[in-house]
Amino acid sequence: MSDPVAEQSGFLRKYMSGHPDTLVAYAKWFGKVAEPITSAEMTAIDTKVSLYTYRNAHATDKADRQSMTLLCTLKNGTKKEVCVPIDPPLKGYDDVKPRLLDMKATAQEKLGMIKAPHIASFHPPPASALVGPAILVGSIIYLFLAPIDGRSQVYEPARLVHSVVGTKAVNVGMYILAAAHVLEAGYTSTLCRKHTSFFTGVRVSQSLSSIVDLAHVNLQAAYVLSTVVFGFPIWQNLRARIQNARIDSVMKVQ
Description:
The chain is α+β, with helices and mostly antiparallel strands. 51% of the residues lie in helices and 22% in strands. The protein is built from 9 helices and 6 strands, in the order αααβββαβαααββαα. The protein has a 3-stranded antiparallel sheet. A 3-stranded mixed sheet has the order 4-5-6. Strand 2 and strand 3 form a beta hairpin. Helix 3 packs across helix 4 (96-110), helix 6 (156-165) packs across helix 7 and helix 7 packs parallel to helix 9. The longest helix is centred in the last third of the chain and has 29 residues, at 167-195. The protein starts with a helix and ends with a helix.
């Protein structure tokens, strides 16, 4: 099977030759080159590179990894070849430009060449993305809190579920959900500490504007508490906004 990225490697190498600062950033951050670099050039980019794990001089495991190869000129005049992994893998040639921009932004940010992107507003994902998690969370809480010995018809579905799967299974499901959302909220808090201010205005999608109407909130609290309730859609949306802001900041300095 042909490699669509490798087929365009000549064009990509020529294009990247006009961005030596980007290649140096790749080599320093992703290639872990500690020595001072004066210049770098891309010599190859492939989406199919076979790597072998050796034990006692014999190959034991084979894995395919995507990478680009850089030839760096060090300050002392010597050359050093660096293999920069591309992870997660590219799906095709159309993924190359956004991925290279994202890698550039990450490398320059980590090396202190640009500031970390700043998110100044709470903008939840569309309501359609929250309906499923809300139903799941609500259902599990309903089953967990339902009085099994009661006679109210409101809890008849919960009593039926308990009789089929058992109360222990329902309780375990609740504990797993709670633990997962707490861990996700911790991850969200880490993102907020790096990329948000303390207080901010709230901007909501039109579909939620009738539900949420706040002038100012603690931005970190808004994101963390939303993650506790809804889970992964909140931090995925925040991470996507950070990534877009990171790429925008890179484009502005090009």
